[in-house]
């Protein structure tokens, strides 16, 4: 790490701490040449490979913008979208892979979006799961219905067992 004051090519780490969210490391450094101290913030890079082959850094804002379109007219707040983007980034980082395909990120969005708003989920899924016909929408809706019925049945059996 070059010293920002004298441009010396080396520095010594005096102190290291993880940030509040645990996603980065704050290091206090000292230059051996001029003895001045400075702080660096280190984060692990996460890259997205687009269909065209271009690689760019992961952006929560791009996740929010993509999901916002699916949520138009739905009771979803900007805070909800920000939390969804955070969950997606945490899931993607948890894979341990530094370079992910944009399509994989789209699929990672589906789970949290489904929990947030099922209509927005269907809109988004129609793009990322390449729905070609009404039957594809119907199959997705039937799957959601079956899961709702299963959840209701599970809840009902729990209620009966506690009586």
Automatic annotation (TrEMBL):
Record Pfam families: ATP-cone, Zn_ribbon_NrdR
GO biological process: negative regulation of DNA-templated transcription
Reported cofactor(s): Zn(2+)
Cofactor note (record): Binds 1 zinc ion.
One term of GO molecular function: ATP binding
Domain ATP-cone stretches: 46-136
UniProt keyword terms in alphabetical order: ATP-binding, DNA-binding, Metal-binding, Nucleotide-binding, Repressor, Transcription, Transcription regulation, Zinc, Zinc-finger
unnamed zinc finger locations on the chain: 3-34
Database matches in HAMAP family: NrdR
Task performed by this protein: Negatively regulates transcription of bacterial ribonucleotide reductase nrd genes and operons by binding to NrdR-boxes.
Family: Belongs to the NrdR family.
Protein name: Transcriptional repressor NrdR
Species of the source: Sanguibacter keddieii (strain ATCC 51767 / DSM 10542 / NCFB 3025 / ST-74)
């Amino acid at each position: 790490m070059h010293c920002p004051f004298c441009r010396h090519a080396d520095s010594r780490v005096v102190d290291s701490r993880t940030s509040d969210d645990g996603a980065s490391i704050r290091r206090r450094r000292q230059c051996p040449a001029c003895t001045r101290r400075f702080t660096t913030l280190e984060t692990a890079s996460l890259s997205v490979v687009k269909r065209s082959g271009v690689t760019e850094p992961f952006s929560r804002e791009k996740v929010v913008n993509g999901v916002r379109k699916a949520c138009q007219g739905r009771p979803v707040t900007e805070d909800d979208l920000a939390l969804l983007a955070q969950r997606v980034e945490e899931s993607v980082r948890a894979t341990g892979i530094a370079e992910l395909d944009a399509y994989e990120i789209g699929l990672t969005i589906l789970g949290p979006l489904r929990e947030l708003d099922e209509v927005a989920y269907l809109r988004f899924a129609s793009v990322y799961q390449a729905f070609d016909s009404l039957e594809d929408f119907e199959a997705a809706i039937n799957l959601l219905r079956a899961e709702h019925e299963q959840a209701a049945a599970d809840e009902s059996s729990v209620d009966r067992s506690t009586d």
